[in-house]
Amino acid sequence: MAYDVVVVGLGGAGSAAAYHLARRGLQVLGLERFGPLHARGSSHGHTRIIRQAYFEHPDYVPLLLRAYELWGELERLTGAELLRVCGGLMVGPSAGRLVCGALSSARRYGLPHELLSPSEVRARFPAFRLAEDEQALYEPRAGILLCEACVRAHQELARWHGAELRFHTPVLEWDSDGTKVCVRTGSGTEEATNLVLAAGAWMRELARWALPLSVERQVVFWFRPRRSEWFVPETFPVFVWETAEGFFYGIPAVAGRGFKAARHHGGEAADPDRVPPPQLEEARWLRAQLARRLPEADGGVQDARTCLYTNTPDEHFVLDRHPEFSNVVVCSACSGHGFKFTSVVGEVVADLVQHGTSRLPVVFLSARRFG
After folding, report:
1. Whether residue 180 lies in the annotated active site
2. Could you confirm whether 260 is annotated as catalytic?
3. The pTM is what?
């Protein structure tokens, strides 16, 4: 059977792409090397932060506004809770990259926000201890995505619209003549008009393109707070914190799990097929940060998981057509901050497959910036 599109990778981005392509009436085959909700890549770990006042680049904001609309639509279609708004704090030096970048995005797009002093943060959110030279931008629309539920929803709706999803089916190689693609797996060869590559940490081997990608192993921890009532969504926002030693983030305890926190970047280079399991001593840096800044957070480590970042040098995504094969779309390199975008990334991928361009502003994510 010949398909309209083969999607390689069915994690956060790939499952969303399969759904958006199938709902437009295309015949879709999705291929995933692991199971439906596996923990080997970048779309697991129970929760993710979603926020709009984006310090990384203001051009992400229109994508985020559309992502919120699509997450809401997905909740209505499935009846599942996917996004819980609890507010968010961007904390750091008042002249630092995080606070200044978030403030610039908020002002440029008229996003609701407040600038809070250390004492104002403490009065509103008693778990936090900001230094006197720090400031926080509070964003009321920030919150939590339940990431496995999001992936499941996209996979289920893709199937409902007729997509064929095959798991435990690694792709060995692919080729294109510009009008059709051939994709070889361990069980045979599939043909399609278009190909979408959304294979996360395995993109370096699959892209057939000298993209400057690196894979970074991160470890995420869950803690038992000493004062659990301070670390639930009703009293505790998601946060990102810029320190002189690096960035870290946190997510309140939901659905029976503890307070979640991790360092953002600073991990070790990794082979995605040989990722070492997490070790308790890897929490040392993070626990030192918590002791100074959220002293009631760490009553002991409850759990730990590894997560893979696939990074570009500038830490922005790659969302583009392949430079050699016009019927191949590359969707990768979320650089550790991409899951919140997956709902809208699926829509952009469908645009690129059907029209070669998108009405959404993704030119700044073109891989042509790397030459």
Report:
1. no
2. yes
3. 0.97
